[in-house]
Amino acid sequence: MPSFQYDTNYARERAFEKVRFGAKSPILEVELNEMQDILRQLVREYMQAQFVSGVEAPLTLAGTSYTNTLRINAFWAWVGGRRIYVSGTDNGAHLSVADGHNYFDAGAPPAAGDRTDLVFLEVWEGEAKPGEGLYKWGTQNSDQALTNNLLDSRIGQETTWRHQIMNEIRVAPGITSILNATDKTGAAVSDLGNGLYGNQSTGHYLIPLLTVPRSAGVTTIDLTEVRSAYTVARQRDDIAAEHLLAMGAAVGEALHMANSLNLELDKWAKQRIQQGEATITNPDPGATYYRSADAYVLVSISGYPLLDTPNYSVLVELISSPNPDAVGRLEIYDKQANGFKIRYSGSAASATVRWTVVDPDLL
Questions:
Q1: Which of 92, 62, 86, 90 is nearest to 74 (CA)?
Q2: DSSP β-bridge partners for residue 103
Q3: SS3 of 285, please?
Q4: Contact residues for 61 (Cβ-Cβ < 8 A; gap 6+)
Q5: Residue 55: is its pLDDT beyond 80?
Q6: d(CA 179, CA 192)
Q7: N- to C-terminal Cα separation, the chain
Q8: How many CB atoms lie under 10 A from the CB of residue 142?
Q9: Which of 80-94, 105-119, 197-211, 279-293 has the lowest mean pLDDT?
Q10: Widest distance between CA atoms in the chain
Q11: What residue spans in the chain does CATH classification 2.60.40 cover?
Q12: Pair 357, 273: CB distance under 8 Å
């Protein structure tokens, strides 16, 4: 059964930028995951250093017929080097959002007097597993649910999990400074620089959006009193335009590493195990014990050469034959890096077989 007990050995302070594999060496899940973490951190740190966190464009607000609820347009935001799309919020669970905008229930007004509440966006990385709720764009409290097809019906069991960038619009009653808010885990928030707030230990990051005045007994949101608390995301003032070239180089390096990873994984998978079918035709079907030549077929391996030649194993099974009882013994021989031969000892006119190449040293 698959196990997801271990994730990654990645630690930023180690300053690793490459995971190197060797021939015939086993590959661990923590190493594959670490490669992804190295790539993600490289791009994220550069983007975070280049851009101030905030919304990409000023927010557009509208009133609604629902109590304590205002509409915030769907919007893009930069949060700690990640570009986030916030769409479909319906935390009041009182309507079906079809236009993609955010219908945000700011909660009940104070029991007495007045107060000002802070509305903010919180972003974190969450695990998406087969059978669990999955929301479009990662927006939680959303009516835009997606089909969770992470469990492949061909396998029938978990093969991988996904990590999704999740976002949620939240409100902190009676608070006007984001530094006085707490994240969803209850942890305190600090100023992380460049418009970003959050808690690095919990991995939850925040940006302020709006301040909303509330009065006792008033369940409508007076949009004329709502004030923006957000920063419009932009390139940092102290970063010269030519530094975008360096950003392009960093992204290019990340893509190069990703392509190299895909190539190595493809080679590893295809050199470890391959499968196919082949038909052997008897050149002298009328002969019995003595015949002019062996009935054999040459199997050519496409793609990467097989490692550990000739010590890899080939499993073979009979699929069909006009006379299966006359096929006799199936034999693998003349193993090379780019293929091998299969023959049978009997007198059948032909035989179709399924072959499987396995290199146990690469498992």
A1: 86
A2: 71, 90
A3: coil
A4: 70, 71, 72, 73, 210, 223, 226
A5: yes
A6: 11
A7: 16
A8: 22
A9: 279-293
A10: 106
A11: 273-362
A12: yes
In order of 52, 127, 210, 216, 281, the CA distances from 172 in angstroms are: 23, 25, 11, 17, 78
- Name the E strands within the chain: 51-52, 54-55, 61-63, 69-72, 75-79, 82-86, 102-105, 114-128, 162-172, 190-193, 196-199, 204-215, 227-228, 234-235, 273-281, 295-300, 313-320, 330-336, 339-344, 350-358
Query: Look-up: residue for tokens 């935001």?
Result: 77
DSSP summary character for residue 286: T
Question: For residue 326, which of 342, 349, 343 has the smallest C-alpha distance?
Answer: 349
Q: Identify the pLDDT of residue 363.
A: 47
Residue 78 DSSP label:
E
Strand partners, 76: 85
Question: What are 256's two structure tokens?
Answer: 């190069």
Inter-residue contact 250 to 43 (CB < 8 Å): yes
Average pLDDT over residues 186-215: 94
- Residue 272 is predicted with a pLDDT of 59
Amino acid, single-letter form, for residue 352: T
Question: How does 321-341 read in b/e, with b if 16+ C-beta sit within 10 Å?
Answer: beeeebbeebebeebeeeebb
* Distances from the Cα of 271 to the Cα of 24, 167, 218, 252, 278, angstroms: 10, 41, 69, 28, 19
DSSP code string of 302-336: PSSPPTTTT--EEEEEEEE-SSGGG---EEEEEEE
Q: Is 265 left (phi over 0), alpha (psi -120 to 50) or beta?
A: alpha
Helices (H), the chain: 29-50, 243-272
Please write the tens of the pLDDT for every residue from 264-303: 666 655 555 678 899 999 887 766 556 667 889 999 887 6
Residue that has been written with the tokens 């975070």 in this structure: 48
φ and ψ at residue 120, rounded to 5 degrees: -140, 165
Residue range 273-362, CATH number: 2.60.40
Q: What is the residue-averaged pLDDT of the chain?
A: 84
